[in-house]
Sequence to fold (534 residues):
Amino acid sequence: MAEAHEAVAFQFTVGAEGNELEPTQFILDVYVPTHIRMYIYIVFISKGVSVNVSYDVFKALVYAGLHSWKLRCRRTMNSLYNSIYPGHPLRGIAWCGMIYVLNTKDRDPSNGLIDWLNSNIFSRYCAPDNSRTLACLVFGSGTYVVLIQIRQYILKKLFSYHGWMYQEHGKMSGIGPKVWGGLVKLFIGRNPSLYSYQSVLPTLPLPSLDDTLRRYLRTIRPLCDDTEYRRMEVLAEDFRRTIGKKLQRYLWLKWLISTNYVSDWWEKFVYLRGRSPIMVNSNFYGLDAAYIHPTTIQTARAANVVCAAFQYRSELDHQETKPLMVQKLIPLCSSQYERQFNTVRIAGKEADKIIHYSDSHHVAVYHKGRWFKVFMYYQNNLLQPCELQLQLDEIVRDTTPPDYGEEHLAALTAGERTLWAEARGKYFLSGVNRVSLEAIEKAAFVVILDDDEFDIGVKADDKYDTYANAILHGKAYNRWFDKSFSFVISKNGVVGLNVEHSWADAPISGQLYEYTISEDIMNFSYDEAGNTRG
Fold:
């Protein structure tokens, strides 16, 4: 297997009775870029397990751990920054410095509170100069946090205003909307990170029981004749007088402790509990730029797109991506970005579940029935497109046939969810099958190097249906529908995006796709032969 799949050894082995066959020796041969090769030898012997790990493997693991810790530290710092937005730590330091300077000039801005803190608390444990400094620091920090909390509260109230929805796009007519818009611009702050506004967005309002029943009756009125409608009115009134009030209290408790009392139910009952195939009932797709075809080399296009996607992931991790804004005033919730990468939908017998991994350093590549695990980092640095293209070229040149069951494995993700869950529990809970499946599911995303060519452009209007069908479902067994998203690259370099729907709505994936296509064409670009630059 190691010789057959140079990017990674994947093996799916099922015995005649449905039992997995355990190998006596398993060799994992990984190509990171071409100038480093890593080996892990795991030999099962009669008295135990002998493990021999090369120095290069150990070094790669160290770099992976270092990358993960840096990412965690960055996320912690961003969380602290977002907690005081629209304030800023530097402005807080400047505020504390101003308080200290005023206090040393015998101008007490605290109305005696700093002196009280100094004499009753800090002077007992510190020298006089240090105790006064600490008192100024505590007072300055406390007042700055209070001011930020007031500003955040005002922003939340301003964002609760819905009158802007009825204004012409880009214009505010009337005194009320104009005053509201001016106040939003005054308090909203500058240079927000991706999650800066999460704490000031208003929660989804909870309608009263009477409002819910009134809206329900108004909704069903066109669907019922007079007799049926009167019957529904009686049932609605009976519900209001009996169990309705109790359920409303439970709903109020959920609203009280949730940022959105609907989202988890929507995800569970609309998506995850569905037992029908998600291939065409849930997943959606995105198409390539219609009139721009930068290269016809499949591996070059794939390398640029994949590197652009990882660059976008880095911006998400560092929260450098700006939140989506409506009319440049109203921020949209950014919570769905959290599960864009390193995410998979796991089939269950009654309901699926979404698993998000904190980080992933590889992509899963499918080509001619074979799965490859391609690492994207070397010495803690993201591979350049030209380096990645070399790895993909090796995959395309490899003529080794797929292992038994490997070519059509992804068909399990295209069928009924319960059947996939049963197969998963029977064949993929241990051994090589489990390790191989995890290599796909723990990937940042999936890359499909397709065997077909797609025609797009001015003269290919009648062929877009074929192109769209290929991106949406392909041959059913050559798409991994459970991953959060997959890039599909045709043999002539046309790209498409297949997205699993349950983790987010289309604008989130659309922003990723727009970014990758733009970076691919405008920044990364190609040389005269159509290969990646470098």
Remarks:
- The radius of gyration is 29 Å.
- Residues 164 and 177 are 7 Å apart (CA to CA).
- The mean pLDDT is 85.
